[in-house]
Amino acid sequence: MTGSRTGDYRILQEAALRDYLAGLPDIKKLLGGEPAVWSITEVGDGNLNLVFIVKGASGGIAVKQALPYVRLVGESWPLPLSRAHYEYLALSRQARLAPGLVPALLHHNETLALTVMELLEPHIIMRKGLIAGTRYPRFVDDITTFMARTLFFTSDLALIAAEKKEAIASFAGNHALCKITEDLIFTDPYRIAEQNRWTAPYLDGLAASLREDMELHVAISRLKLKFMSSPEALLHGDLHTGSIMVTASETRVIDPEFAFFGPMGFDVGAVLANLLMAYFASAGHERAAGERREFETWLLETVEQVWSEFARRFLDLWRSEASGDAYPVSLFAGEKGAMRLEAERQAYMQRLFIDTVGFAAAKTIRRIFGLAHNIDFELIEDPRKRAISEARAIRLARGMMVEAAAFRTIADVTGAARKLREWQPELSG
User: Fold this and answer.
1) How confident is the model at residue 76 (pLDDT cuts 50, 70, 90)?
2) Cis link prior to 263 (omega < 30° from 0)?
3) How far apart are alpha carbons 189 and 413 in whole angstroms?
4) How far apart are CA 406 and CA 360, in angstroms?
């Protein structure tokens, strides 16, 4: 599966990619037909990489190649190619822990920072489906299975200490991608930064208030510290609805190039944040008042179910699969020990919930005032309507971060979101 490390890196455009793939016997057989007639289409719409769909007479593949810079910005922002290696490592481990929930790996060349994967069809990016008002009945089961298994089985609850430390070390070199997160999520939205942007002029005042809000600055700094210093489990690192491909019956998680060992709540919070942003953006996509209310109800129900089902699955794994060095069974013998350990499990999940709420808030704020925005909001054509939707999301996010004690359950989060659905913010301009 892994290709040669020899040779120099080069960006593979269509002709070079065709020649490269033709030299891989298994890939050539999978595609079928003559290489000269394979269709190759570059479809990458993300911030960092080239992504190609290649189709032949017998089948298709997806090819992803890392660029030596941030694609969204250009060569002025260099980025190490090693991120493709960490993505490959993460996908390999995720495939073992959550089979069927990530794309199958077909080939990897570390020198070219290139990975060949199964072509996901007729899957679409989940974010695009949510903008269209589509519901996904398998999503809760699939995403909570993915998160519970990948997080639990890479944590100290499942791994002995030496295994965990070796696993942390194997991803420690992905610090350049971590630095992007540390800056773009936890720092830049709260200060003047060249690459920040927002829906101006309507959110000018709100942007200024974030830069002056010391309570918010303390809260985001605490979250940043936890992100940098708590290697609880192997994270996907960028688990938003743009990194999830879906059909009505299947879910696949893609693009874990930000993978590293960090706090579990970061991944769970990212999923919840993107569902909540889809909820607040929904009004801006209405063609007639109220036409998306049933869809919005489903979104908030999904937020609740994602947390509750994740927590249930994670706890079930802890009760049945715990073989790590944390909470050794020998310390909790007998009925009294079992009762005390179960109480501690519940307390652990409550701490994880608090982390999740905070990280969800951080992910929301960065998508409205930072560099890379969500098309949930961006595709709302009327900038005033967009700003109203974004201001509602920001009001919830600030509360979740600064007034964390008010959010003891996931129903507290969805209840607050529901109340803000009709709130009319005062806009600048």
Assistant:
1) confident
2) no
3) 22
4) 15
Cβ neighbours of 335 (radius 10 Å):
7
Query: How confident is the model over 246-266, as pLDDT tens digits?
Result: 999 999 999 999 999 999 999
Question: How many CB atoms are closer than 10 A to CB 114?
Answer: 26
pLDDT above 70 (res 203): yes
Query: Are the CB atoms for 184 and 194 separated by under 8 Å?
Result: no
Report whether 144 contacts 267 (CB < 8 A).
no
C-alpha–C-alpha distance, residues 420 and 397, integer Å: 11
Run of H or E residues at 377 = helix 375-378
Pairing state between β 233-235 and 49-55:
unpaired
Q: In this predicted structure, which of 41-55, 126-140, 370-384 has the lowest mean pLDDT?
A: 41-55
* pTM of this structure: 0.96
As a whole number of angstroms, the distance between CA 274 and CA 367 comes to: 10
The per-residue pLDDT for range 282-320, each reduced to its tens digit, is: 999 999 989 999 999 999 999 999 999 999 999 999 999
Distance between CA atoms of 332 and 345, rounded to whole angstroms? 12
Q: Which residues contact 76 (CB under 8 A, 6 or more apart)?
A: 69
Q: What's the whole-number average pLDDT of the chain?
A: 96
How many CB atoms within 10 Å of residue 19? 11
**Confidence check: pLDDT of 4 > 60:** no
The vertex-371 CA angle with 212 and 140, nearest 5°, equals 100
- 405 to each of 163, 216, 269, 310, 348, how far by Cα in Å? 36, 14, 17, 21, 16
- Residues 367 and 269: beta-carbon distance below 8 Å: no
**What SS3 class is residue 53?**
strand
**Confidence band for 5, pLDDT divided at 50, 70 and 90:** very low
What is the rounded CA–CA span in Å between residue 80 and residue 272?
A: 30
Taking the C-alpha atoms of residue 259 and residue 251, their distance in angstroms, rounded to an integer, is 19
| 260, β-bridge pairs | 235
First to last CA, the chain: 56
The amino acid present at 336, given as its one-letter code, is: K
Instruction: Answer for the pair 286, 296: CB distance below 8 angstroms, yes or no.
Output: no
Q: What is the DSSP string of 100-143?
A: TSSPPEEEEETTTTEEEEE---S-EEHHHHHHTT---TTHHHHH
Check: CB of residue 413 under 8 Å from CB of residue 271.
no
